[in-house]
Design goal:
The chain has a domain of 94 residues: 2-Layer Sandwich (GTP Cyclohydrolase I, domain 2), CATH 3.30.1130.10. It is α+β, with helices and mostly antiparallel strands and 148 residues long. It has a four-stranded antiparallel sheet with strand order 2-3-5-6, with helices on one face. A two-stranded antiparallel ribbon has the order 1-4. The chain contains two helices and six strands. The N and C termini lie far apart (40 Å). Strand 5 and strand 6 form a beta hairpin.
């Protein structure tokens, strides 16, 4: 499908229209989602590692309600499936308005990714910004089944 060029802003269509700032998500092209899409591993006969760095992760502190910011680093060796990147982005975005402890959300991301792609190995690192003078990094790993 050919991409159309944007002719530029029109009156009433820019970011400062009456709709902006209302929290209205109707008409937005994408929304957060909990589902992860996959596709077939294009090189199933070769063992290789896929790495992602997601520097815009946000959730809420379950104690204070204040935002917590993190960079998530995900690496895995696929078996038969790979995770589709846009669905990963929307999945990580879905935590933005939820309260989670750092330890729990890092392990939950690992569990959900393992369930979706069933990798040979996977590592998820949640590198959280300093909060109360403490920098937290949580690492969770999945070793896969024995003999793989």
């Amino acid at each position: 499908m050919a991409r159309q060029n944007n002719p530029g802003p029109r009156a009433g269509s820019g970011p400062l229209t009456a709709r902006a700032g209302r929290g209205d998500t109707e008409g937005m092209p994408t929304r957060p989602q909990k589902s992860l899409e996959t596709f077939a591993n294009p090189r199933p006969g070769r063992e290789y590692e896929i790495r992602f760095e997601c520097p815009e992760f946000t959730c809420l502190c379950p104690k204070t309600g204040q935002p917590d910011f993190a960079t998530f680093r995900i690496s895995y060796v696929p078996d038969t499936l790979c995770v589709e990147l846009k669905s990963l982005k929307l999945y990580l975005w879905s935590f933005r308005d939820e309260g989670h402890f750092h330890e729990d959300v890092t392990n939950r991301v690992l569990d959900d990714l393992v369930a979706a792609v069933k990798p040979k190995r996977m590592r998820v690192e949640g590198d959280f910004n300093v909060r109360g003078g403490i920098h937290t990094v949580v690492v969770a790993e999945h070793a896969g089944r024995k003999g793989r």
